[in-house]
Amino acid sequence: MNDSYLSAAIEIAQDAGKILIEELSRPLDIRYKGDEVDLVTQADKRSERFIVERLAKYFPDHAVAAEEGTGHESPSASEFRWHVDPLDGTTNYAHGYPCFSVSIALAQRDTLLAAVVFNPFYNELFTAARGEGAAFNGKRIHVSKVAKLSTSLLCTGFPVRNRKASANLQYYGDFTQRSHGVRRDGSAALDLASVAAGRFDGFWEFGLAKWDTAAGVLLVEEAGGKVTDFAGNPYQLGGPVILATNGLIHEEMRTVALEISRRSPANV
Ligand code: 2AM
Ligand code: CA
């Protein structure tokens, strides 16, 4: 059953990706959610409208939670819920930096069942179904085997708002000194997919929403990685901080993160 959910999610993510590519060649109509940092484009809205409509057609009983707010509750109180980011990496998209994705995941209550993260610019499709592993363009993927923080490549992200006050600058500095480097690519869904594919060994970020992480979390878990908060508790969708790694460097990253938190308690 998870397979048919996954096939539907793949089809929908690929079609939404076509919309994003089509919109890229048009003049951008950028709007701001409140101020000049939180962008939303015509592409976010068009992609979301398409995804929500298609999910409602295929799965009329399911709830849909989508970033731009056009989702709906389940008409039959079903426990299935889709988490949709119609364009993850909007800032990149608006600047023509080709690191953006469509992220779609299905959860049954708290259990993630199927996940797709699709970068339509590079045609990179990351997929996972619970218990069936994760794949990149149809081929099985696994997290990396890098076992030490000192030889790992990491990734993080910064919130669009209040960057000056962001606790994460401390973590960014520390982890940069203790690893091969910390990338900051601007699409949390792709960051998590990259951990699943072994491109990055670890990723952390504060303040992400459910639609940013739902698909990526299942990808990392099904690729053999680990996802928790800094205390080591299982990550809850929408929780204040996410730590996703290949499993091997998890405890080392957690120890460093907790040390930074202790040094700057106001920052957590
Ligand atoms: P977006 O492009 O879909 O907004 C950047 O590190 C990551 O944070 C991106 O995945 C970005 O997703 C996400 N992001 C940006 N603004 C956010 C917000 N207000 N709440 C949660 N996540 C956000
Ligand atoms: Ca988005």
How would you sum up this structure, described in words?
The chain has 268 residues and is an alpha+beta fold. It folds into two domains: 2-141, 2-Layer Sandwich (Fructose-1,6-Bisphosphatase, Chain A, domain 1); 149-267, 3-Layer(aba) Sandwich (D-Maltodextrin-Binding Protein, domain 2), CATH 3.40.190.80. It is 35% helix and 25% strand. It has seven helices and 14 strands. It has helices at 2-24, 42-58, 90-95, 168-178, 188-196, 210-222, 250-263, and strands at 30-32, 39-41, 63-66, 80-88, 101-108, 111-119, 124-129, 134-136, 139-141, 153-156, 181-183, 202-206, 226-228, 241-245. It has a seven-stranded mixed β-sheet with strand order 3-4-5-6-7-8-9, with helices on both faces. A hairpin with a 6-residue loop joins β1 and β2 (39-41). α1 (2-24) packs antiparallel against α2, α4 crosses α7 and α5 runs parallel beside α6 (210-222). The radius of gyration is 18 Å and the shape is globular.
Question: Which CATH class of the largest domain?
Answer: Alpha Beta
Number of helices: 7
The CATH architecture assignment of the largest domain turns out to be 2-Layer Sandwich
Strand order of the largest sheet: 3-4-5-6-7-8-9
Number of strands: 14
The CATH superfamily title of the largest domain: Fructose-1,6-Bisphosphatase, subunit A, domain 1
State the CATH topology of the largest domain. Fructose-1,6-Bisphosphatase, Chain A, domain 1
Please give the share of residues in helix. 25-40%
List the ligand species: adenosine-2'-monophosphate, calcium ion
**Unreliable segments (pLDDT under 50, ≥5 consecutive)?**
none
Q: How far apart lie the N and C ends?
A: 40 Å
Mean pLDDT: 93
Number of folding domains?
A: 2
Structural class by secondary-structure content: alpha+beta
Query: Outline, from the CA principal axes?
Result: globular
Strand content: 25-35%
